Automatic annotation (TrEMBL):
This is SpoIIE family protein phosphatase. Residues 29-109 form the PPM-type phosphatase domain.
Length: 111
């Protein structure tokens, strides 16, 4: 999974920092039910601004589309709704012939 933050000024990859060059791309390395002491969730604190848009997606999406393509789809569709943005991101990944499962959650900061 990857978490990306978009606003008009910049795009920030929050997790993982090396989203497209992971050693274990496509491998499930953490999950609920993993052996004791093996799960190491990552967390952090960030300031939020009105209008920030976040995308939580699987490698089926960020592996099939470039960051530039993702940005264009988000810019075009979040003016209508985050639901449209998520649907169109998945559709674009399918058109790019993604062979992995595709998950996309888009949410926007309102206050």
């Amino acid at each position: 999974m990857a978490l990306l933050r978009f606003n008009p000024a910049e795009t920030t990859i929050i997790f993982p920092p090396d989203v497209n060059s992971q050693k274990y791309t496509g491998a499930l390395i953490q999950y609920l039910g993993i052996k004791k002491n093996r799960l190491s969730p990552q967390s952090g604190v960030a300031s939020l601004s009105r209008g920030d848009i976040f995308l939580l997606c699987s490698d089926g999406l960020h592996g099939a589309l470039t960051q530039n393509q993702i940005q264009k789809i988000l810019r075009k569709n979040t003016q209508r709704s985050v639901e449209d943005a998520a649907k169109n991101l998945v559709q674009a990944a399918l058109l790019a012939r993604s062979t992995d499962d595709i998950t996309a959650m888009v949410f926007e900061v309102y206050q």
